[in-house]
Design a protein that fits this description.
2 domains, eight-stranded antiparallel β-sheet, alpha+beta, 12 helices, 24% helix, Beta-lactamase, six-stranded antiparallel β-sheet
Amino acid sequence: MDKHLILSNETSDPLYYYIFCYIFKSMINPTKIMKRTSILLFLLSGLSIVVLRAQEFNPSRMDSLMSAMDKKNAWMGSIAIAKGDKLLYQKAIGYADRAQQKLATTNTRYGIGSISKTFTATLVLKTIELGKLQMNQALSTFYKDIPNADKITIRQLLDHSSGVHSVTDDKDYLTWNTKAQTEKELVERMIKGGAEFDPGSKHEYSNSNYILLTYILEKVWKKDYAFLLNQQICQPLKLEQTTFGRPQNIAKDVSESYRFTQDWDLEPHTDNSVPLGAGAIWSTPTDLVKFFNGLFNHKLINSTSLEEMKKIIGGYGLGLFQMPFYDRRGFGHTGGIDGYSSVASHFDDGNYNVALISNGNNYNNNEILKFSFGELYQKPFPLPDLSEIQLTDEETTSILGEYKSEQPPIQINITKDDGKILGQVVGQPAFQLKPKDKNTLVQLQYGVKIVFDRSENKMTLYQNGQTLILKK
């Protein structure tokens, strides 16, 4: 699930950003689900505000971007761009299933991770509109044994100010996340984890909030979540490719997901019973832009409820984050589960909706999102430079080794395997580094640049506007 991530210069959840999470706390363990991703598309500070005007959308540059990523094996997935009900662009690249050599199409379904929270928040607001639930209702109405249950409200679950322990942060999470979990088992894990903070005292992302909201919806409606999702959202908006959980008939346009190290490695699937309404929905970008258009044009909930969702306190709305683009402000969410990464965003100015989902990501999702809005608002970004060079054996050998820093105490090993240069933070999976010149190597997905100084036996790591020097 997605932890603190600023798209455009801090990329997730998103969005899949495990490489240097220990260093700058801006990445996410990709094997977990849906840690919070706070989003900044592109914000100019200290500069004059640029007034942007929407124009007729030209798909040719989007085609060029998608083609470039496809040719360089940089990204697999699908994107959709819409203005209101009008679909302006949709395209899929890469494989739905590499083993079967099955190419992705715009109907291919993917896990959307934490974008599921926007669906769940919408269902909760609808339930409140109907008088079946109250925003200030105590969690103890449903769960008396969770720490501070009598002080935690439905709103605090929605905006991540409850202090409920996130079960996806458990140290043993990866030993049980692919196995079916009962309500009792997950709630017991929340109880065992204890309170993270006093309710309302701060905001901190917790997947448990939306797991609990899933159970509460089922109790109030006396219907399962899959039924509610279909009845209250999918049917009214005609979302034909959106389901709770991985579709059972995998022959019907269902994707696998992958993690790139030296090649695309198949990722395991988290059991649907673990993330529930926090991250278990499957969909397509085309359905996601329909959903966001329906949500923001009051086809699902009324204007009062929508304004509640859009209130940002402590960086969080109710199932939404704010997404600035220059002087504009949009709303959306990111997702990341297993090898899937996603982002969906709505801007009132132009009534634009953009959604993308990747099942194999070796490039920064935010760069794609920025590029898309740049095309919509006449602020074009250059096509990415995905080129790389080959280092000589001598140039490669001279940078291999162990690099350490004192503060923070961290070690990154630089190795070579099958002709590829790999970096690895101790205790984390390896990642491939691609040479841009003989001294500079990059990892584009996470916006990482490493510059080697052979004479000083050191490397300087740049990410998210921060710098770290490590010595050999």
